[in-house]
Specification:
51 residues; 45% helix
Length: 51
């Protein structure tokens, strides 16, 4: 397939974090600030390998 972009531009990687993807006023951020989800680790610890 022909493209206007040079192959170097297509092969470049862009590192992006979840913080960059979620807007500052998103409901997920409000929930994370309000609820302590640490209790979940104890509930699911038996579902994960020791390794």
């Amino acid at each position: 397939m022909l493209s206007k972009h040079h192959s170097i531009q297509r092969e470049q990687l862009e590192m992006i974090t979840f913080d960059q993807l979620v807007p500052p006023n998103h409901l997920v951020r409000k929930m994370e600030a309000s609820i302590d989800f640490i209790f979940i680790y104890d509930l699911v610890k038996d579902m994960y390998s020791e390794v």
